[in-house]
Write a structure and sequence with these properties.
seven-stranded mixed β-sheet; 8 helices; alpha/beta; Metallo-beta-lactamase, Chain A; 14 strands; globular
Length: 254
């Protein structure tokens, strides 16, 4: 499996792109603004989008993908998400007011997009690639993803605060190689991190102390204007784990 980071920032501006990662050529893990750097032909190859949660920085490109390349495809784009997230997308995004419902375009029988529900712990297998939703705790219904090639695994937390159920599952993954985990807030704004159900560096360190094996750790979702400060705090608080900053165009093979 080959995962390319299209966007990993908490916002936009300059080179900043919001969360999206391309698995091989045909699967997106979230669909933030980073998708916009793909060509039409690259977008047309995407058959699946796995969504962690409904916030705009993670789903904003789904409407544009189906609108831009739906006519180029012979089958619908499948949006994989939990039922609560699907309901939010249908009610607030694909509602004919904010954006057309592409599960009915060009027709209900042959749509450009369809929804597929995910459940925690239930693996979706696509040509030998195993994608399993794992628990997360955010201000809207949210999950992370465990990507398993058979040889090794990568886990992406999505947006989350500290959540014991997540770590209990992660510690059972024998072939865990990479962990991509968010840290969106500065330490001095810890109360905001708690309220918004994100992590700051001190909270991140408390979480990483629950690890029973040490994978390569990458930090995502840094707020653009404070990214350098947050990353310095992460490096100071969690230095024994050697965390690294996730970067656009970074590629993981596992």
């Amino acid at each position: 499996m080959k995962l390319k980071v299209l966007g990993c920032s908490g916002g936009i501006g300059g080179t900043h792109r919001t969360t999206s990662m391309l698995l091989d050529e045909d699967i997106l893990i979230d669909a933030g603004t980073g998708v916009g750097d793909l060509s039409l032909n690259e977008m047309a190859k995407i058959d699946h989008v796995f969504v962690t949660h409904s916030h705009l920085d993670h789903v904003t490109s789904i409407p544009f993908i189906v609108d831009s390349v739906g006519y180029m495809r012979s089958k619908p784009l499948i949006v994989h998400a939990t039922q609560p997230t699907q309901e939010i997308l249908k009610q607030h995004l694909f509602n004919w007011k904010l954006w057309p419902d592409f599960s009915e375009i060009p027709s209900k029988n042959k749509p450009h997009m369809r929804h597929q529900n995910l459940s925690l712990g239930i693996t979706v297998e696509l040509e030998g690639r195993r994608i399993t939703p794992v628990p997360a705790d955010h201000v809207v219904p949210a999950i992370g993803f465990h990507l398993d090639s058979g040889k090794s695994s990568l886990v992406f937390t999505g947006d989350t605060t500290s959540y014991d159920s997540f770590w209990a599952i992660i510690n059972k993954i024998d072939n865990l190689r990479y962990l991509i985990i968010e840290t969106a807030i500065r330490n001095q704004e810890k109360e905001l991190a708690i309220t918004s159900k994100h992590l700051c560096a001190s909270m991140l360190t408390e979480c990483l102390n629950k690890l029973e094996r040490i994978p390569e750790i990458y930090i995502t979702h840094l707020n653009p204007g404070e990214a350098d400060i947050i990353m310095r705090e992460v490096e100071e608080c969690a230095k024994i784990f050697n965390p690294k900053r996730l970067m656009n165009n970074q590629v993981f093979e596992f």
